[in-house]
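Dear colleague,

Thank you for sharing your sequence with our group. We've completed the structure prediction you requested, and as agreed, I am returning the results in plain text so they can be pasted directly into your records. Please verify that the sequence below matches your submission; if there's any discrepancy, let me know and we will rerun it promptly.
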Amino acid sequence: MQVRYQTDLYAGHLLVPIDHNIDCNKYSYKMLERNRIKGVLSCKKRTEDGKDCLCFDITGKKNLYQEYKDRELKFLEMTELFQHLVAILEAVREYLLTEKMALLEPEFIYRDVETRELFITILPWERNEDYPFRKLAEFFLEKIDLQDKNGISAAYHFYRSQTYPGFFLCQFLPILEKESILSRQNEKEEEKEESKKEEITYGREIRERQREFKVLEEEEDSGIEEKESRLWIYSILFAFLLLGLSFLSLLDKNQRLACIGLSVTLFLLGIGTRLWQVLRKKQEETRKILSEKQRKGEEMEIKIFQKIRQKKGLLMKKEV
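Please find the predicted structure tokens below.
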């Protein structure tokens, strides 16, 4: 079918020639001209260059070729497209128009740019074609996302189904529903796998942070321990040194008493530092034992939680 397009600054029109053997004064043309059917392009009879034609208003609309020129078609978009086409064809039947009157090639299926509403082109006469959905099926195979397994399966089923004689578009909806169920199941499985990966990654990050914190803590503890060891050793050494000086004959009585007092103070400081060091080590060992028990308890809780989730997943699968 040779069609023409007429566009200007304000409007766009699709011009379909009328064969001289076709009577456009019959009921079907009057229904299209006088009624605003939802999802159907409005049309009027016009004479261009001495030839009669049907003029369809396509202002502010894009056909499927234009819509998906630079992007791929997703399974959900394909399902939505089929549902809208079937709904429009059902509405058309209420006006005693048939599916054979519809131009269901991608270049004649339009979508409003602003409202995203779908429109099809209906002729006031029936078309006698063996495979009216072939171009639409080829369009789906060409534009479907190759990473979308459900979309590829649905496009292939549609291409194969439209070759059967007496095929109607509404017959394909049950196949789409099955594919939709499979798609939802695949999405749930992918979400579970992603959640598992996130849990594993999160667990690794926590363990790495715990290791880093533990290394820093051990370095800090070793530095404190080294300082404490130096303090109590030097304190006791200086205490004995001062005590030895106090017995020298060069010092008078007051100096000897001062040396003895200072040596006792340093000795007590060294002993106290050593005792504090021992107590701190015991507290550290106790804390490590408690943290290890807590870690084991958390691991047990995680395992129990994972088992509960697995049981719930199995129950949900059985219900499905």
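Summary note from our side: The first strand starts at residue 4 and ends at 7.

Kind regards,
the structure core
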